[in-house]
Write a structure and sequence with these properties.
The structure holds two protein chains of two kinds. Chain A is an all-beta fold. Chain A contains no helices and eleven strands. In chain A, the strands form two sheets. In chain A, strands 2, 4, 5, 6, 9, 10 and 11 form a seven-stranded mixed beta sheet that branches. In chain A, strands 1-3-8-7 form a four-stranded antiparallel beta sheet, with no helix packed on it. In chain B, strands 2, 4, 5, 9, 10 and 11 form a six-stranded mixed beta sheet that branches. In chain B, strands 1-3-8-7-6 form a five-stranded antiparallel beta sheet, with no helix packed on it. Chain B has no helices and eleven strands. Chain B is mainly β.
Amino acid sequence: NAGVTQTPKFRVLKTGQSMTLLCAQDMNHEYMYWYRQDPGMGLRLIHYSVGEGTTAKGEVPDGYNVSRLKKQNFLLGLESAAPSQTSVYFCASSYFRNGEQYFGPGTRLTVT
Amino acid sequence: KNEVEQSPQNLTAQEGEFITINCSYSVGISALHWLQQHPGGGIVSLFMLSSGKKKHGRLIATINIQEKHSSLHITASHPRDSAVYICAVHMGTSQGNLIFGKGTKLSVKP
């Protein structure tokens, strides 16, 4: 089992460009999350999903969109990247609502 | 106002020392997690607990629900324990998302 994978691992964007981050899990987990990690701050929730076809906003959703068309995949989109979105993005998944979360390796995004 | 506070922010220890990292939270929770983030960036779950104490190898985690406080202890510390240790909580009303502390950066010198 691969667990939770994220692609790409690194990306540099220019302001205004768009991109999609892909998170995939092979553990049949219902719950999936996108977090961002910035220096001096704890991880913060961007969006989450409680099952296939569902998404909801987290703490810092502005500038991002998500989709969960298949249970195993959770996509995070940036329509018009801004320097404030420079961060490390982590995807996580869990089987139970308040269960152990499994994290992907992270995507380091730089917006210039 | 941070809902999850960790102390200390940074900790340097000599190999073999006993280490304690503290976590306090201000909200009702259903579970508390201790996570480890190595310099390469990957995040691994160490413990999930809602009461009492758990032990895994040289790591021990305790929680006091009444005092809203948890501790992570490392016995006989080793340089490979050098990492950022993160406390995170599931709030009782959450949809499963975690609220994170800012982390404690531990460096163990040989």
